[in-house]
UniProtKB/TrEMBL annotation:
Cofactor requirements of the protein: Mg(2+); Mn(2+)
PANTHER family found in the cross-reference section: PROTEIN PHOSPHATASE (PTHR47992)
Matches recorded under PROSITE patterns: PPM_2 (PS51746)
Keyword Hydrolase in record: yes
Keyword Plastid found: no
Alphabetical list of CDD domains matching this protein: PP2Cc
EC number: 3.1.3.16
Protein name: protein-serine/threonine phosphatase
Cited InterPro entries: PP2C (IPR015655), PPM-type-like_dom_sf (IPR036457), PPM-type_phosphatase-like_dom (IPR001932)
Organism for this UniProt entry: Vanilla planifolia (Vanilla)
Stretches assigned to the PPM-type phosphatase domain: 29-301
Keywords linked to the UniProt accession: Hydrolase, Magnesium, Manganese, Metal-binding, Protein phosphatase
GO-annotated molecular function: metal ion binding; protein serine/threonine phosphatase activity
Length: 433
């Protein structure tokens, strides 16, 4: 069939498409040194029925190409009901994947993940709040692609890395107002009030909370009755393991309120992943009892040549948390609260960012960078935008010298309102009966 002469727009879209066979060949070449074995185990004890988890072992960057398989593990610790945790479990992954352009090679795909995670978290929060329900949830979301681990988190669930050799490090940042000074300052600057619960006589008890609402976390998904300065923008950390592999322990605060990170790693060393998850839960219950929902996922990332899982034996007695060091491949994180790691050569840091400012997290793009996101889609909800309909995420006051409203990414009007509310630029908090 002859092509018509007036299909310039169609030709542009056709040229952006990459044939499946070409993608598969590209993936096969890049995957040779990236093969890993991933084994996992889950364990849980329920107190309130608000913990949920997600395990997906059959995700593919390129549909129909088994060599592009990646793994997803996530924990959602709900509060004020379980609706937000269930909604995030069922929708967050698809929202993240929807924010990644098609036709990317592996390295481009991995590079696009941090931004897509931010967009996916915000879209999930926005959609859940539209339901008018007041529950909320933490979210710790882990994507494993070969030796590369990408972790996005809001709240106080946690993911630790126990690298072969016995080194333990945090891949998440706790967003508890009690411990996180930077988050307290951000919440109060955006219009929230931080303080403890007052009882009769003016006595203050319990952890620091944000008012209205009384939430002790500064970031979550949901919580529409608290105020939109409680943001869903995740801390994201992306690292690449050496080919010796390592173990991840992903758990809700029912574990971490009972066990320090190193204790959790030590108590299950030498055990296969399934038994290790059970042992971590058992140790937490032995230490503190069942005072909260307690959920743990253990994931082992193993070189393919290992026919037997070689896990590190318990190290000699130590009272201090051993930390790994990352070789920097990108600029230093602005989030100084993240654990700094010290043993160079075990893990390479690819990316880390914890800012709660959406413009910083979505970055800049020009017409030359359209391969990472369409200029005609909202960067958050992915709704199609008519020409000149979108509002730049960088648009601000006309008196601002840093504002670049002609640069993308762009937001639809609804997502721009969401951005402004999270930054305290309009009244926030939804009145609910």
């Amino acid at each position: 069939m002859a092509a018509g002469g007036g299909g310039g727009g169609d030709r542009r879209r056709d040229n952006d498409m990459v044939p499946l066979a070409a993608l598969i060949r590209r993936e096969l070449r890049s995957e040779k040194a990236e093969k890993t074995i991933v084994r996992y185990g889950c364990a849980a004890q329920s107190k309130k029925g608000e913990d949920y988890f997600l395990v997906k072992t059959d995700c593919q960057r390129v549909a129909g190409n088994p060599s592009s398989t990646f793994f997803v593990f996530a924990i959602f610790d709900g509060h004020n009901g379980n609706a937000a945790a269930i909604f995030a479990r069922d929708n967050l992954l698809s929202h993240i994947m929807g924010a990644i352009p098609r036709g990317l090679g592996k390295e481009e795909w991995i590079h696009a993940l941090p931004r897509a995670l931010v967009a996916g978290f915000v879209k999930t929060d926005k959609e859940f709040q539209m339901k008018g329900q007041t529950s909320g949830t933490t979210a710790t979301f882990v994507i494993i692609d070969g030796w590369t681990i990408t972790v996005a988190s809001v709240g106080d669930s946690r993911c630790i890395l126990d690298a072969n050799g016995g080194e333990v490090s945090l891949l998440t940042v706790d967003h508890r107002l009690e411990e996180n000074v930077e988050e307290r300052e951000r919440v109060t600057a955006s219009g929230g009030e931080v303080g403890r619960l007052s009882i009769m006589g003016g006595t203050e008890i319990g952890p620091l909370r944000c008012w209205p609402g009384g939430l002790c976390l500064s970031r979550s998904i949901g919580d529409m009755d608290v105020g939109e300065f409680i943001v869903p923008i995740p801390h994201v950390k992306q690292v690449k393991l050496s080919t010796t592999g390592g173990r991840l322990i992903i758990a809700s605060d029912g574990i971490w309120d009972a066990l320090p990170s190193e204790t959790a790693a030590n108590c299950c060393r030498g055990l296969p992943a399934e038994l290790a998850a059970r042992q971590v839960v058992k140790e937490a219950l032995r230490t503190r009892g069942l005072k909260d929902d307690t959920t743990c996922i253990v994931v082992d990332i193993i070189p393919p040549t290992d026919s037997v899982v070689e896990l590190p034996s318990p190290p000699k007695e130590s009272n201090k948390l051993n930390c790994l060091g990352f070789r920097k491949k990108s600029r230093d994180s602005s989030n100084k609260l993240a654990k700094k790691l010290s043993a160079v050569g075990v893990v390479e840091e690819l990316f880390e960012e914890g800012s709660a400012m959406l413009a910083e997290r979505l970055g800049h793009e020009s017409s030359s960078s359209h391969s990472y996101s369409s200029l005609f889609k909202c960067a958050i909800c992915q709704v199609e935008l008519a020409p000149f309909e979108g509002i730049s995420v960088h648009a601000g006051s006309i008196f601002s010298t840093s504002s670049k409203p002609w640069e993308g990414p762009f937001l639809c009007a609804d997502c721009r309102k969401k951005k402004d509310a999270m930054e305290g630029k309009r009244p926030s908090g939804v009145k609910v009966p």
